[in-house]
Specification:
Shape: flat
Mean pLDDT: 78
Number of strands: 2
Structural class: mainly alpha
Order of helices and strands: HHHEEH
Strand order of the largest sheet: 1-2
Number of domains: 1
Helix content: 55-70%
Distance between the termini: 37 Å
Number of helices: 4
Radius of gyration: 16 Å
Largest sheet: 2 strands, antiparallel
């Protein structure tokens, strides 16, 4: 397991028994969820994903990504060794299809996801 994944795994475990870790874990999650929510709102401003509630969709995508990383980053899942580049491409594809319904012509969604704007 990578040092980052191992550290996050430890925070996750400590958060179940120590309020300080639970608060910190929630703060870290909120940053990621806010970024995802911002990208969904930007996509909606462009006419995509109108049926999505940005906060709920962001929470669902963030939870999916977090849990996937927690259980598989740097580990072997069944007979499948999780390749980080393939994992990023797969998650980006799921995210893109959720918002836009189809892949872009070049199929490289990792570079087409709307980037969050700077917060004022």
């Amino acid at each position: 397991m990578s040092p980052i994944a191992e550290g996050w795994s430890q925070v996750f475990q400590f958060a179940t028994v120590d309020e300080r870790f639970a608060v910190r874990q929630t703060e870290i999650r909120k940053v990621g969820q806010d970024i995802i929510e911002d990208t969904i709102r930007q996509a909606q401003q462009r006419g995509h994903g109108q049926e999505l509630d940005p906060a709920i969709a962001a929470g669902a995508l963030a939870a999916m990504i977090e849990h996937f990383c927690f259980i598989s980053l740097g580990q072997v899942v069944g007979d499948l060794a999780v390749d980080e580049k393939k994992a990023v491409q797969t998650i980006a594809t799921i995210w893109h299809r959720t918002l836009y319904g189809a892949l872009p012509p070049d199929d490289d969604v990792s570079e087409t996801i709307v980037r969050p704007t700077a917060q004022s």
